[in-house]
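I am sending you the entry underneath: sequence plus fold tokens. Let me know what the token row says about the fold:
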Amino acid sequence: MTERRWPLVVAAVAAALVIAGAAWAGGQASAPETPASGHKSAGVRSAVRTIDGVAVGVERSRAGALAAADNYVARVTETIVQDPATYARLVRVAWVPEGQDDALREGESTRDRSATAVENYAAGGRGLAIVAARRLDTYDGTRAEVTTWTGGFNWGPQQRPGQRWFLTETTLRWDGQRWRIETMHEAERPAPAPARVGYDDAASLKTETFDRELRGMTAPTYGDA
């Protein structure tokens, strides 16, 4: 899982969020035989629980595996360069023990390759991620493979607002209490990218627009903490 330099092709984020929300809702329909992630009803427990500040997938079901992948992909995307301490905590909580050292080294390597992004965040820039849609590729109760379509957005005083859409492939393992990450990597193939849509493209691309409209926002939690 890596963070590359964002392309210069940008979109109005408000419109992108609407598109992504619709696509994510469509993704929910891919597992109709299971309750939607985070749905609460009699006899249905929360699919996600917060452990050491990390939203962890704790429901052993198809929907639970999807909820776990949603949270893990979004948080890795947001933190691997922007917040190394939070990323390290995520690795300790969410990865299988034998994969943690490799995940931490990958984080260090990614930051080393992302000098522009590191400088932007240090100067007060911000980044966030949204899960637009996802697919449960395989599931047998002990392991699950999920493909996730994610949008990453960043902006700041030293970087033009940008967006990048990519696909992430995640393998999860059930350890008896929670879903843990065995592998997570960005797919080496093109991902769908929404066209530019906005009320006023010129105004939408200004850093102050991002700061004003997205202040206080983070990646959503696809399940109840």
Summary: The first helix runs from residue 13 to 28. DSSP finds seven helices and six strands in the chain. Strands lie at 48-51, 54-57, 126-139, 143-156, 159-174, 179-186. The chain has one domain: 13-213.
